[in-house]
Amino acid sequence: MRGSVRGLRARLVVAFLLVAAVSSLTTAALTFREARRAILQRSQDTAVNALRAQVDSLAPDLTFPPSQAALENFVHQINGGGQAQGWTAYATYGDETTAPDVADTAPEAITSGLRDAVSKRGVPVFQRVDVAGRPWLAIGMPVTYAGGEREQSGLAVYAELPLTAEKTNIDALIQAAERGALPALALSLVPALLAAQGVLRPVRKLRRAAGDLAAGRLDTRLGVRGGDELAELSRSFNHMAATLEENVIELRRLEATARRFASDVSHELRTPLAAMTAVTDVLDEDADTLDPDTAAAVRLVSEETGKLVRMVEDLMEVSRFDAGAAALHLDEVDAAETVRKSLHARGWLDQVRAELPEHTRVSLDPRRIDVVVANLVGNALRHGGGPVRVTLRTTPRAADGTGRLVIEVADRGPGIAPEVLPHIFERFYKADAARARSEGSGLGLAIAAENVRLHGGELRAANAPGGGAVFTADMPLRPLEQS
After folding, report:
1. Which of 99, 254, 351, 390 gives 20 to 30 Å between its CA and that of 235?
2. DSSP structural state of residue 96
């Protein structure tokens, strides 16, 4: 659920809905503002014009200064003529004389600011105010003398009228906008889903194609339609896939050529090396009867021939791994006895501290475990520091008969440099360039790692906290009945 909410489809739909919502709200707000302004402006203009017409028709009959009775009659006539608008009017003359309508009913919408504006400007003034939550329109209109110069007469007419009907109309507009918003968003969901579907379809195809390409199907290509950005992305993917296919084919060809060359050379060297080894063995037996210089040369030839033989054997073993021809020949053996035999065959029992629990019956390939132990212990003796410790342990078998077999080889040398650790199992890699002429071929650890991997395990290298290198072969234990 979390992935679907955070997915591209959800984000596209939400973005589309947000755009639709913002557009709808903006349009509704602008429409509402214009409609509200038009409604209020129409009511305002109608009331102001009607009041001006009443004042213009009744004011000429007044005599100045007007009496209280005349003002009362004047206001009464204005109120009678404004029944259609529903206003309440009153009049003031000077600072003290006020019509009785004002004294008896205090005006709510006529503010002191409106009075000051009428007095100072001498022109009609109006304002909209809210009184106790109700909208009102207040109008102030000065009465002037007729003539070229319209002098102030001192008489001012004020009117206030409720805008209840207009507020009802405006509220109806708001409700209509609210009722229409949800259906509009619901309707916009359909094109949002269609748009997201159209955008995501090529994206999903691209994802599947990338998965196929990662799975090794290098001939994967996308169908390209149109000329938009997604089509350009598909074309770029096709170009990348084609280039990758060409490069991989070329790399595979070169790799196959290199493997075939190493395998062919190794096989071709075996016959002359066998003859050379036989000859050097004979010469070694007679070396003591030769003069010192000749004996030293014989021993050097014999030593270098042995190195060459071991290197050829390593190359042939690597070639079998590369060709997929390496296979396990499982046998039920005592793991401790297998490790002990490997150490004894090379005369290392006196140089190694072995912690080998007895009677550990396991199913494995003894020859390949011998290769692993020989390479790890030999590497520790040559490049580490004594004492070298070999530890064998197993984890308890689970209900299905499986467990873990761990062989650990540790030394007390300087350890492995941090920059070397990532490359320690690479072929022909040597941490010290000065050891290029050492007896190692640079393949021993790589072969050991391949043999552990063939057992379904992993070979790891690390530095011990107290110093020295630690190599750990961690392999699963197969049920004995399957051996």
Report:
1. 254
2. T
* Confidence at 463, pLDDT banded by 50, 70, 90: very high
Question: Which single residue is written with the structure tokens 């140089």?
Answer: 351
Domain ranges of the chain: 2-171, 229-323, 331-482
Return the CATH class of domain 229-323: mainly alpha
Task: Return phi, psi of residue 233, to 5°.
Answer: -65, -40
> pLDDT per residue over 40-67, tens digit each?
778 778 888 888 888 888 877 777 777 7
The confidence band for 2, taking pLDDT boundaries of 50, 70 and 90, is: very low
For the chain, counts of helices (H) and of strands (E): 11, 12
Picking from 336, 439, 433, the residue whose alpha carbon sits closest to that of residue 390 is 336
Query: What pTM, to 2 d.p., does this model score?
Result: 0.49
Tell me the pLDDT tens digit for each residue of 174-203: 777 667 666 766 666 667 666 666 666 777
Q: Does residue 348 surpass a pLDDT of 80?
A: yes
Task: Give the largest Cα separation in the chain, rounded.
Answer: 162
Is the pLDDT assigned to residue 101 strictly greater than 50?
A: no
Homologous superfamily of 331-482? Histidine kinase-like ATPase, C-terminal domain (3.30.565.10)
Q: Is there a contact between 385 and 469 (Cβ–Cβ < 8 Å)? A: no
pLDDT in tens, 364-420: 999 999 999 999 999 898 888 778 999 999 877 555 556 889 999 999 888 888 888
What is the rounded distance in angstroms from the CA atom of residue 251 to the CA atom of residue 320? Answer: 19
Please count the CA atoms within 13 angstroms of the CA of 134 that sit on its side-chain side.
13
Please count the other Cβ atoms lying within 10 Å of the Cβ belonging to residue 39: 17
Cα(340)–Cα(329) distance, rounded to whole angstroms? 20
Q: Which CATH number fits domain 2-171: 3.30.450.20, 3.30.300.30, 3.30.559.10, 3.10.580.10?
A: 3.30.450.20
The first and second tokens of residue 130, run together, are: 């809210």
Give the separation between CA 61 and CA 73, rounded to whole angstroms. 11
